[in-house]
């Protein structure tokens, strides 16, 4: 064949194919780039929403109160839409238009969740009277807002065993139980634990015995640095008052009582208008407020001794956590131990499998998850409330109780989200069909164990006849309403120089365990956050300080390379060892230091007890 013929064939046949393939490939690249850009914007906007919630709740003394929680959640949702609109501005989307592409936003809180989605609001009020819409037009009553708060709950019923019980779960081992058992109605709530091996030899001492090991919890000394101002009288007849200049951060001992810290003052300001002869105070907008003799008496009764004596000024919340948890667990054990989750669950949302959208990214469809895979229990394992079964301590992550708790939370949320996103199609008619995407198991575990924000964005055209469909899950690990097992850091006890002359560590730190510290205290992660306030009488001077000024250990807190032990290793009192190479190059096996174990377990119990839910407001929405 002549060269000229080949050239003609190339021009007429091959070149068009090359051009078409090139255009198609470029389109695919543009689609992939657009999707990647939208993924980044969605993730950043979700992070902004979480950060907004953190800032609002950490600076809010009433962060756990229900009305305040909803307000903070709404503010977080507004931040998400503002951030998303800003990120997508180059694509021409406004905040209002984004409602068409966000079928749902999920906010999981300690004992339940809110979902932001459009719904039919047929009720309006005027002059304190309710008026119901009779319009059949779905769009006329359309409203974007949060649906009513929903609990993580499951119902168990058995006629043969004579019970009908509802259990409301939380993000940890706190449960609320109500129903009938053998003809009697009951309702109660508390932390569910295995009380075996827990004893109270006297005073506020707690002894925990497991696997042949003991730890003893005694009243503990807690302290932190604070900067403050005083309200003082400015004349002798006490008719006017003023705020003094701020003090430099100073170390104060404190005890925590019902989510309020009370500080011991070895040099009380007797000129403060609140001073009533008691050298104990709390902070209110960074003002030092000395307590009354009546409140001191309350603290005396709680601690069990005269708290005006510095030797008695020690925190005892851990004691009340275990005392109450043991009493609660013993009281409900007989009512819960016969529940078999393989046969006795009657809640539809738990037993149903859902029609969920799965993106075809894997050739082998058997590898794709279409819904949360519930734990498969043998008949013996199915008695998830029976803590006398082997490996079923409710405080551990791998227990049957905890696996079932996660299943209930995932099933409850999945049912609501599937319905909310599917209903989005009723409000917006388009070429795209909105559907609940399949969340990964890692994401469900994150949701069931943390305060989280989950955002969904769907329906945007990204080219080549494709639509954007993705979600973002971001955990809020720094908040006031929930203490996760990973929220506790450990450090050497006592007062340190304010510039921070030692480090704080994660509980899994092999190096810190290898150092064999002899006196350790655990604090919450939010205690290491920067504190801020404005001193109004000093030309609005911005005051910054740290409650715990120690520096984070880089290898266990930042990179987590040295964080090898898990929370279950601490709670199970096991003999696990980790191979560790120190700075000199020496390699040896490291096991958990018993002083760190005690400090961690005591700190987690203390912080759980100090939460406001123990003031009887949990589960009231």
Structural commentary:
The protein is of the alpha+beta class. Among the domains are: 3-153 and 338-476, no CATH class; 221-314, no CATH class. Strands 1, 2, 5, 6, 7, 8, 9, 20 and 21 form a 9-stranded antiparallel beta sheet that branches. Strand 16 (250-257) and strand 17 form a beta hairpin. Helix 5 packs across helix 12 and helix 7 (400-427) packs across helix 8 (441-449).
Helix content: 25-40%
Largest sheet: 9 strands, antiparallel
Strands, count: 29
Distance from N terminus to C terminus (CA atoms, Å) equals 85 Å
Apparent shape: globular
Radius of gyration: 29 Å
Number of distinct helices:
12
Could you report the average pLDDT, rounded to the nearest whole number? Answer: 85
How much strand content do the residues show? Answer: 25-35%
Task: Note the topology.
Layout: H1 3-58, H2 66-87, H3 95-98, E1 105-108, E2 112-120, E3 123-126, E4 129-132, E5 142-146, E6 150-158, E7 163-169, E8 174-181, E9 184-191, E10 198-202, E11 205-210, E12 213-217, E13 222-226, E14 231-233, E15 241-243, E16 250-257, E17 260-264, E18 280-284, E19 287-290, H4 293-303, H5 317-336, H6 348-351, H7 400-427, H8 441-449, E20 451-463, E21 466-476, E22 488-492, E23 503-506, H9 510-514, E24 520-524, E25 530-535, E26 541-546, E27 551-552, H10 554-558, H11 567-571, E28 577-581, E29 587-591, H12 594-610
Parallel strand pairs: 23-27
Antiparallel strand pairs: 1-2, 1-20, 2-5, 2-6, 3-4, 6-7, 7-8, 8-9, 10-11, 11-12, 13-16, 14-15, 16-17, 17-18, 18-19, 20-21, 22-23, 22-24, 25-26, 28-29
Helix pairs in contact: 1-2, 5-12, 7-8
């Amino acid at each position: 064949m002549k060269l000229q013929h080949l050239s003609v064939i190339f021009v007429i046949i091959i070149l068009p194919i090359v051009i078409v393939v090139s255009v198609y490939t470029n389109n695919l690249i543009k689609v992939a780039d657009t999707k990647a850009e939208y993924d980044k914007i969605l993730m950043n906007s979700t992070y902004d929403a979480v950060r907004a919630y953190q800032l609002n709740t950490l600076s809010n003394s009433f962060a756990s109160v229900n009305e305040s929680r909803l307000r903070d959640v709404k503010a977080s949702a507004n931040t998400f839409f503002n951030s998303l609109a800003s990120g997508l501005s180059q694509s021409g989307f406004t905040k209002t238009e984004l409602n068409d592409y966000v079928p749902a936003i999920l906010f999981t809180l300690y004992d339940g969740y809110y979902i932001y989605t459009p719904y039919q609001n047929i009720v309006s009020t005027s002059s304190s009277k309710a008026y119901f819409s009779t319009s059949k037009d779905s769009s006329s009553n359309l409203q974007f807002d949060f649906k009513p708060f929903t609990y993580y709950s499951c119902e168990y019923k058995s006629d043969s065993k004579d019970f009908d019980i509802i259990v409301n779960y939380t993000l940890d081992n706190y449960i609320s139980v109500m129903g009938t058992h053998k003809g009697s109605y009951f309702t109660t709530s508390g932390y569910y634990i295995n009380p075996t091996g827990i004893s109270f030899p006297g005073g506020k001492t707690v002894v925990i015995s497991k696997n042949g090991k003991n730890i003893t919890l005694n009243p503990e000394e807690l302290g932190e640095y604070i900067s403050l101002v005083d309200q003082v009288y400015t004349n002798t007849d006490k008719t006017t008052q003023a705020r003094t200049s701020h003090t430099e951060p100073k170390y104060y001992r404190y005890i925590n009582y019902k989510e309020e810290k009370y500080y011991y003052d070895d040099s009380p300001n007797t000129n403060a208008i609140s001073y009533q002869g008691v050298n104990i105070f709390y902070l209110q907008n960074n003002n030092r407020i000395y307590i009354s003799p009546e409140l001191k008496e309350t603290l005396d009764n709680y601690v069990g001794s005269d708290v005006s004596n510095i030797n008695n000024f020690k925190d005892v919340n851990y004691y009340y956590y275990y005392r109450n948890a043991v009493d609660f667990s013993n009281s409900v054990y007989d009512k819960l131990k016969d529940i078999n989750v393989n046969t006795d669950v009657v809640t539809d949302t738990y037993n149903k499998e859902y029609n969920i959208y799965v993106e075809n990214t894997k050739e082998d469809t058997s590898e794709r998850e279409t819904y949360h895979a519930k734990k498969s229990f043998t008949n013996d394992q199915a008695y998830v409330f029976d803590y006398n079964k082997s490996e079923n301590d409710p405080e551990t992550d791998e227990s049957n109780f905890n696996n079932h708790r996660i299943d209930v939370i995932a099933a409850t949320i999945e049912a609501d989200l599937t319905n909310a996103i599917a209903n989005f199609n009723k409000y917006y008619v388009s070429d795209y069909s909105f559907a609940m995407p399949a969340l990964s198991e890692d994401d469900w575990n994150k949701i069931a164990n943390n305060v989280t924000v989950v955002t969904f964005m769907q329906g945007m055209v990204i080219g080549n006849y494709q639509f954007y469909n993705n979600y973002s899950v971001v955990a809020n690990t720094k908040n006031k309403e929930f203490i996760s097992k990973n929220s506790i850091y450990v450090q050497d006890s006592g007062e340190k120089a304010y510039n921070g002359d030692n480090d704080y560590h994660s509980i899994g730190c092999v190096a810190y365990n290898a150092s064999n510290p002899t006196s350790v205290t655990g604090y919450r992660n939010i205690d290491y956050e920067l504190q801020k306030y404005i001193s109004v009488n000093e030309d609005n001077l911005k005051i910054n300080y740290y409650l715990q000024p120690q520096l984070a250990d880089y290898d266990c807190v930042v990179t987590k390379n040295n964080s090898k032990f898990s929370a279950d290793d601490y709670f199970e009192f096991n003999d696990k060892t980790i191979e560790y190479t120190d700075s000199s190059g020496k390699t040896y096996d490291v096991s958990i230091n018993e002083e760190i174990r005690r400090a961690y377990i005591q700190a987690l119990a203390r912080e759980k007890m100090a939460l406001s839910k123990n003031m009887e407001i949990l589960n009231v929405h």
